[in-house]
Amino acid sequence: MTTSLERRNSLYGNDLACYERMVEIREFEKITNALFAEGSIRGTTHLAVGQEALTLGISSTLKPNDVVAATYRSHAIGLALGLSPESVLAEIMGKATGCCGGVGGSMHLCDTTVGLLPTSAIIGAGIPVAAGAALAFQVQKTDQIALALFGDGATNIGAFHEGLNLAAIWKLPVIFICDNNVYGEYSRIEKTTPIEDLHIRAESYAMPHMSLDGMDIHAVRSGLTDAINRARTGGGPTLIEAKTYRFSGHSRADQALYRPEGELKEWQKKDPLLVTEKDLIKRNLITRNEIESMKENMVSELTAVAKKVANDPEPELSAMFSNIWTPSKVAI
Amino acid sequence: MATMRFRQAIVAALADEMRLDSRIIFFGEDVAEAEGPFKTSEGILKEFGPERVRDTPISEMGFTGAAVGAAMMGLRPVIEIMFIEFLGVALDQIVTEAAKTRYLSQGSLSVPMTIRASVGSGLGFGCQHSQTLEHWFASTPGLKVLMPSNAQSAYSLLRAAIRDPDPVIVLEPRILYAERGDVDYGIIAEIGKAQMRATGDEITIVALGQMVNVAEEAIKNSGVSADLVDLQTIIPWDRETVLNSVKKTSRLIVVEEAPLSGGWGSEIVAYVTSQLFSALKSPPFRITAPDVPIPFNGGLESRYAPTASDVTRQILHALKNQDVPQPWWVVEGIAG
Ligand SMILES: Cc1ncc(C[n+]2csc(CCOP(=O)(O)OP(=O)(O)O)c2C)c(N)n1
Ligand SMILES: [Mg+2]
C-alpha cells in the first residue's frame, strides 16, 4: 500500500501528478455527495469542489513535516496532503479503517505523517493553533512552518484577529490562508463583511499580505513560496487571501439556491481543473484523450474504493473509550 | 391547539412573543433570510422585518455581547446559536457579563435576553457538534437554564424565557426538531417548574430533553409504576416536585444525556439524599453517558446517551436488588 507520505512526495515538481490529485478530489467529492444522498453517510459533509487548485498548491509547496490546521471542509485538503481516498472515505463513513478510526467523521481528518492536525469544526479555531505550532518551531529552532487554512467567514471571528496579532508580534513562522469562496454558509460575503478583499485585514497587524487567484495552482504556489521563504528565514507570518468559489452548496444537501443567477457559471469558466488542463496541454504534458482516460480510471478506482470501504469493519466499542487522556500516574 | 413539529413550535413561540412585545429583536447566523439552518425561524423575517430580525456574521462573541448590551438598554434580544459548542467563543459575555450585570448594578440594570442553542447527540455530527454542555452554565448564578422535551414544552418554555427579566439559556435537543406534537398556545411555562410526564409509586425518574422520551419508553418496557419528572429547568430546578415525588416512591433515578462527571443529576441526587436519607429504600443513582467525547460512528454513537433498553435494565435491577447497577461499559467489561 502507498503511504500518505509517498502520495505526498509524488506531488513535488510533478504538475501532472498534482493535476491527477485534483481530478481525484473532484471525483471523490462527487462520490461522497452521492453516498450522502443515498443515506450511506451520516451527519454532514462539506465539499470543496472548485477549490482543488488551492489545496494542491499548498500540498505541493509546503514540506511534509510542516503542519496544517484546517477545517471541517476537510476532504480536499486531506487528499491533497497525501491521505488516501480509502482512509478519508472510511473516516467519512465511520469505519475503523478511517484516518481517525471512525470516531471523527467527515469534519475531522487527521494524519500526522503528512502534517495534518485534527481538522476543527469550530470556525477560526485552527488559526491560533497554527500560531502555536509555529511558536513551537520557533522555540525548537527547526525550519518547519505552520499553515492555517480557513474560510472568508472565519475572518469575522475573534480567533482570527487574536491569532494574527500574536503571530505578528512574535514573528512566528506561520502562514494564514483565507480561502475566500465568497460564501459563509448561506450568506454571501457582503452581507456579513464590510470589505471584499480580506487580505487587507493584515494591515492592522503590520503583517505582509497578498491576494491571489486560488483557481490557479501556479498562482497559489508562487504566492505561497514567497510567504514560506519569509517564514523560514525569520521574517514572520503572512496572510494570503485565495480567491476561490464554492461550486457546491455549503454542506449536506444544500442546493445553494441563494446564489445570484449566473454567478456559478461565471466562476465555472475558471474551474481549476480546466485551467490546469489547458496549461498541461499547452506544455505538451498531456493530451485531451489522456485526460479523458485519466478521469475514467479515476472514477473506476474510486468506485472500487467506495465498494471496499462500505464493507470495512466498524470500530470496536472500546474505540469510544480510547485516546481520551493519559492517567496522571504515568505522566512525568 | 395545533399539531406541529418541535421546530415549528419554536417559531410559533418566538412569533407570538414578537407580536406582543416590540422590544424583542432576534438575530443569529443565517436566521433571517435563510430562516435558520434548522428552519427554526421560518417566516420571522417576513413578518417582523429586517430591523428586528437580523443575520449576523460568524461572530458569536460579538453578537452575544451585543445582545447583552441591547438587553441592558431596554431591548429583549433573542439570539440563536446553531450548535451549543459555538458558545465556547462567547462564554465570557454570558457567564461573566450577562450573569453579573444585575448584581454589579445593584439591580439597576438587568439582562432580559434569551439564548437558544441546539444541543445533543444522535445525528452523526461528531465530537464538536453533539454535546449538551448544560454544565457550562448550570453553576453560574445569575443564569437560568431550560431544556424542552417536546413541541409543547418547546413552545411554552421559549415564551417564558423571552418574558423573563434575566438571561435565559434554552437548550433545544436537535434530534427532536422534526418530532410532532400538540401545542396549546395558551400554555406559558413557569420557569423552575417541572412537569410530571407519568405518575406511579414504585420509583421516581427525573430526566431532561431527549432523555424524557427514553425514560418514558423504559418505564413502559419495564412495567414499573413510576413518577416521570421532566425537569424542564436545570437552574433553578424544581426541588419541591422532585422531593414530593421521592417522598412518595422512596427511590430516585436521574437520566442524563451528558457525561457522568459533573452532571446536573449529581446535584439532584445529592440534594434528595441529604433531605430524605432515612426514607430511601435504595440508593439514588444516575444513568448518564460515559466520560467520553461523542463518537461519530453510528454504532458507537447509539451507545453514547442512555438507551431505553439500558435504562430498563437499570430500573429493574434497582427494584430487585435495592442497590446501584453498574453502567453498561462496566457490565460489558469495556471500561472502568
Ligand atoms: C464558531 C462557529 N460558529 C458557527 C459555525 C457554523 N458554521 C460552520 S461552517 C460555517 C460557514 C463558514 O464560512 P467560511 O469561513 O467562509 O468557510 P467555508 O465554509 O466557506 O469554507 C458556519 C457559520 C461553526 N462551525 N463555528
Ligand atoms: Mg466561505
Spatial sequence of strands, sheet with the most strands of chain B: 3-2-4-5-7-6-12
The N- to C-terminal Cα distance of chain A equals 37 Å
Q: How is the main sheet of chain B built?
A: 7 strands, mixed
Q: How many structurally independent domains of chain A?
A: 1
Question: Would you list the SSEs of chain B in sequence order as H and E?
Answer: EHEHEHEHEHEHEEEEHEEHEHEHHH
Helix content range of chain B = 25-40%
Query: What is the tally of beta strands of chain B?
Result: 14
Average pLDDT rating of chain B: 98
Q: What helical percentage do the residues of chain A reach? A: 40-55%
As for the CATH topology of the largest domain in chain B, it is: Rossmann fold
How does the helix and strand content of chain B classify structurally?
A: alpha/beta
- The tally of helices of chain B reads 12
Number of strands of chain A: 7
Topology:
The complex is a heterodimer of chains A (332) and B (336).
Chain A: H1 4-9, H2 15-37, H3 52-59, E1 67-69, H4 75-81, H5 85-92, H6 126-140, E2 146-151, H7 158-169, E3 174-180, E4 183-184, E5 187-188, H8 189-192, E6 209-213, H9 217-232, E7 238-243, H10 263-268, H11 272-282, H12 288-310
Parallel strand pairs in A: 1-2, 2-3, 3-7, 6-7
Antiparallel strand pairs in A: 4-5
Chain B: E1 2-5, H1 6-20, E2 24-28, H2 44-52, E3 53-55, H3 60-72, E4 76-81, H4 91-104, E5 114-119, H5 135-138, E6 144-146, H6 151-163, E7 168-173, E8 180-183, E9 195-198, E10 203-207, H7 210-222, E11 226-230, E12 233-235, H8 239-249, E13 252-259, H9 264-276, E14 285-289, H10 298-304, H11 308-321, H12 328-331
Parallel strand pairs in B: 2-3, 2-4, 4-5, 5-7, 6-7, 10-11, 10-13, 13-14
Antiparallel strand pairs in B: 1-8, 6-12, 9-11
Helix pairs in contact in B: 1-6, 3-4, 7-11, 8-9
Thiamine diphosphate sits between chains A (73, 121-123, 150-154, 179, 181, 183-185, 246, 250) and B (29, 58, 60, 82, 86, 89).
